[in-house]
Design a protein that fits this description.
Layout lengths: L1 H10 L23 E4 L16 H13 L4 E6 L4 H16 L5 E7 L2 H14 L4 E7 L2 H7 L3 H17 L4 E6 L6 H14 L3 E5 L7 H18 L4 E5 L7 H11 L3 E4 L13 H10 L3 H4 L6 H12 L16 E2 L2 H19 L16 E2 L7 H10 L9 H12 L7 H15 L2
Parallel strand pairs: 1-2, 1-8, 2-3, 3-4, 4-5, 5-6, 6-7, 7-8, 9-10
Length: 429
């Protein structure tokens, strides 16, 4: 009985936003042009399986972020270690010297010493690196750490005021926001705003929330901001523990968050952060004005660099950038793609069996030949390879397909060439 009661008591340490139904009145079209902050070089590197890239690789990634139109980047937790501080300094210097169109942030706890490290980088370069300050907000965290709200409010005011006193634009994040009580969030947010915070951040630190919960909490945050009469931006930072981070980020934008965070290949602590490549593509497909004409052709360069630098393989079936994302060997699918190309050209072929057009990231549909294939696959491959006349005859196609049906995998190009030559030699000897 005692353990059951204790369990019931402990459940109260998690505030449940996912089942709330209250809505908060917001202006229509609250967010028309959402922005993006890249966490690959900070939160992404907290993954226990990644390698910390060299500074040269980080600088190269910074340039690709700019090519993708990413608005802001977290360049590190400056107080965490000397190397992280030095890399953050170097990255900020590149942004300053090359006038890159991306805003740098450094992470810090709501501790004056952490803020001072960001101040030092900004002073050294005579260039502002914005402060990204966070404090734990959830009752479960407070219980474990033995924190009082009064202590956290004091820390929040001191840290934010120190940042503002040193002329740093400041974003204040409540860690584990999505399991935090609204009264605590309201108190912390109002304290941060009064101390000079320019933005508020909602963190789904353990990937707990669902899209409905995101909508509730973002609207609540917006209502708190409106009560202050200040113009304050809202960020949403998601994690993927329930596999909902992309859906949650999109829900956050619809509910009023004007900036969302992501990492290349969804890397990050535990099972990772919101996938940056999926986030960018979905915002473009949903038609937000600052994404409709965005060139995402460098997404492959972006993920390949992170994959190589961090020693993280890209799964073949990973959405958008995986090897299989735009490949098919199924006869019915391939036939539809080929018919679509004949009827409406590449635009139609790129969409008949694909929710994400390959052309959006500089790729194309690929038709392979394997045991699930039909004649259309073989004919398409022969035509693409430049085979004509007898090499592409019905009899050669039939013989190839019969041989392929006996395999247990897709055939490689050199294997298909060998089959063509072998059957052509037999049939037309």
């Amino acid at each position: 009985m005692k353990s059951e009661r204790q369990s019931q008591d402990l459940r109260s340490l998690i505030y449940e936003w996912n089942q709330q139904e209250k809505t908060y009145r917001l202006p229509k079209n609250t967010v028309k042009r959402p922005k993006i902050l890249d966490e690959t070089l900070r939160d992404g590197l907290q993954s226990t399986t990644v390698k910390d890239p060299s500074i040269e690789e980080k600088i190269e990634l910074l340039h690709i972020m700019c090519d993708l139109g990413i608005d802001a980047v977290n360049i590190g937790f400056a107080a965490a270690a000397p190397r992280i501080y030095e890399d953050a300094l170097a990255l900020a210097k590149v942004i300053r010297d090359e006038k890159l169109p991306i805003t740098p942030y450094c992470l810090g706890r709501t501790v004056v010493d952490d803020v001072q490290k960001i101040v030092e980088i900004s002073r050294t370069l005579d260039f502002e690196v914005q402060a990204f300050l966070f404090v734990g907000a959830s009752p479960i965290r407070h219980f474990v750490e033995n924190w009082s709200l009064e202590t956290l409010l004091e820390r929040t005011e001191q840290a934010v005021r120190h940042a503002r006193k040193n002329h740093l634009t400041t974003m204040f994040f409540t860690e584990d926001t999505t399991r935090s009580h609204p009264n605590v969030l309201k108190a912390l947010w109002k304290k941060a705003i009064a101390a000079g915070a320019n933005r508020l951040g909602i963190a789904d630190t353990v990937g707990y929330v669902n899209p409905q919960g995101v909508s509730q909490i973002v609207q609540f945050c917006r209502s708190v901001i409106q009560s202050t009469g200040k113009k304050i931006g809202i960020d949403f930072h998601g994690h993927n523990d329930r596999g909902l981070s992309v859906a949650n980020s999109l829900a956050a934008v619809r509910a009023g968050a004007d900036r969302v965070h992501g990492c290349a290949l969804a890397i990050g602590e535990r099972v990772g952060n919101t996938s940056m490549e999926q986030l960018l593509v979905n915002l473009k497909l949903e038609g937000y004005p600052n994404f409709t004409d965005r060139n995402l052709s460098r997404l492959r360069d972006y993920v390949n660099l992170v994959s190589n630098a961090c020693k993280i393989p890209i799964p073949s079936d990973y959405p958008i950038v995986g090897e299989n994302a735009f490949r098919t060997s199924t006869g019915i699918h391939a036939a539809a793609v080929i018919k679509a190309h004949k009827m409406g050209g590449y635009w139609l072929a790129d969409r008949v069996y694909s929710a994400v057009p390959a052309e959006e990231i500089g790729l194309g549909q690929v038709i392979e030949v394997g045991p699930q294939s039909g004649k259309s696959n073989v004919q398409h491959w022969l035509t693409k390879q430049g085979y004509h006349e007898e090499a592409a005859s019905d009899e050669v196609i039939t013989r190839i397909l019969e041989s392929v049906k006996e395999e247990d995998r897709i055939l490689l190009e050199h294997e298909l060439h060998e089959l063509v030559n072998a059957f052509k030699a037999k049939i037309f000897a």
